[in-house]
From TrEMBL:
Its main location: mitochondrion. It is found in: Mitochondrion. It holds the Pfam family ATP11. The gene is Atpaf1. This is ATPF1 factor. It comes from the Eukaryota.
């Protein structure tokens, strides 16, 4: 009563606080601001903002992920560490591929743009077709293609970025997948098979890719499984065998 002006001022501030959302505090806003400023400046904030049908990113360029100009000052090993550290915290597949190896994969992909991959399951194998589209490699299950034809949606996409290939000698790779059909270790198995079949030094292994693309009538599904088992990749997804010994 003695200071009506002070009273009105306090009431106005009280009403402002009531209007603020639950959990709001200036300290919270400050912490949030500092966290945003502390994020790695090597990576762009626009990752995954444009999505296409099936939830995959449209126009997923390297610039939409990485600050390319900034990392150009880094060595190949430093870029590799930055890339691996960033994606290791994410539920996805990623890699840094030596330029020579990618060059071999890329040349062969031009001649043989598709291949049949085998993914180990609890009982038997599930086959996936991998189809190159530019530097993107799209995977979808064989049963999807058999039932939906050319409209079969991608279930995994590997994105390869050769922008640093000449200058740094590396090609960056990351992926997106449909989690309803694949989990990370299954997607990783398919990604590993790309190098197994397209970057191999064994003529017999790459011959399977050539046969699938150019002599399909001679192609044998079991040959892929045999190659996969021989490489050891086929055993990685198998559950451990329980011994019957008593």
């Amino acid at each position: 009563r003695s200071s009506p002006d002070v009273f009105e001022s306090r009431m106005e501030k009280r009403n402002e606080v009531k209007k603020q959302p639950v959990g709001y505090s200036k300290q919270g806003e400050f912490i949030k601001c500092m966290e945003e400023k502390a994020r790695p400046i090597f990576f762009a904030e626009s990752l995954g903002t444009k999505t296409s049908k099936g939830g995959f990113t449209k126009d997923k360029t390297l610039d939409s992920i990485l600050n390319v100009e900034m990392v150009k000052e880094k060595s190949a090993e430093e870029i590799k560490q930055i890339w691996n550290q960033y994606f290791s915290a994410k539920d996805t597949v990623y890699a840094v591929i030596p330029a020579e190896k990618f060059d071999l994969i890329w040349k062969r992909a031009q001649k043989c743009p598709s291949f049949l991959y085998a993914l180990p399951r609890k009982e038997g194998y599930e086959f996936f077709v991998g189809q190159w589209s530019g530097t993107e490699l799209h995977f979808t299950s064989l049963i999807n293609i058999q039932t939906q034809g050319e409209t079969a949606p991608s279930q995994l996409v590997l994105y390869h970025y050769p922008e640093l290939q000449e200058e740094k000698g590396i090609v960056l790779m990351t992926a997106e997948m449909d989690s309803k059909f694949l989990v990370v270790h299954e997607a990783q198995c398919l990604a590993n098979q790309v190098q197994l079949f397209y970057a191999t030094d064994r003529s017999e292994t790459y011959e399977l890719v050539e046969t699938f693309n150019h002599r399909s009538s001679e192609f044998k599904y079991m040959s892929v499984i045999a190659e996969l088992e021989q490489s050891g990749l086929g055993r990685e997804l198998r559950p451990a065998q329980v011994s019957d010994k008593s």
